[in-house]
Amino acid sequence: MRYWLMKSEPDEASIDDLANAPERTLPWTGVRNYQARNFMREMKRGDKVLFYASNADPSGVTGLAEIVREAYPDQFALKKGHKYFDEKATPDDTIWVMVDIGWVATFPHIVALETLKEAPGLENMVVTKKGSRLSIQPVTKSEFDIVLKLGK
DNA sequence: GCCAACGTTGGC
DNA sequence: GCCAACGTTGGC
Residue A42 and residue A123: Cα distance in Å, rounded? Predict the structure, then answer.
């Protein structure tokens, strides 16, 4: 089992949106970065996800999710006019993929980025590093466990 | 294949 | 809203 961090701006999808969605699952569309896409391709059903709110006040981890459907073609890349349209995508190769995630838990309070930066053991966590813009990041088990504790 | 220009992300 | 840090594009 692997662990991940997935960023979303609250306007796009928040942990509450996930908790209130039908079957408490949401498709994770719109990833248009190759490194992030490649991580999505590695995701397996049951992998755990730290749900991260970016561009928020404050930004931070708001809850837990898990992978309920592994990578499949992101059809929005084919939809002309859609904000996730990519003119290089074809039906045979949409270039981009999405996964479905399921709600697991909403933290009683957000674990702010500042808290993550100060927490012992998270010094090497990708999200705490300067200039880390990647929207999908791998997380180690020990990092995951520390964040879980901070969220309780 | 280099790299300047441009666009985007996301903390602050 | 600013802007640093990145990623991507495209001329050469």
Answer: 24
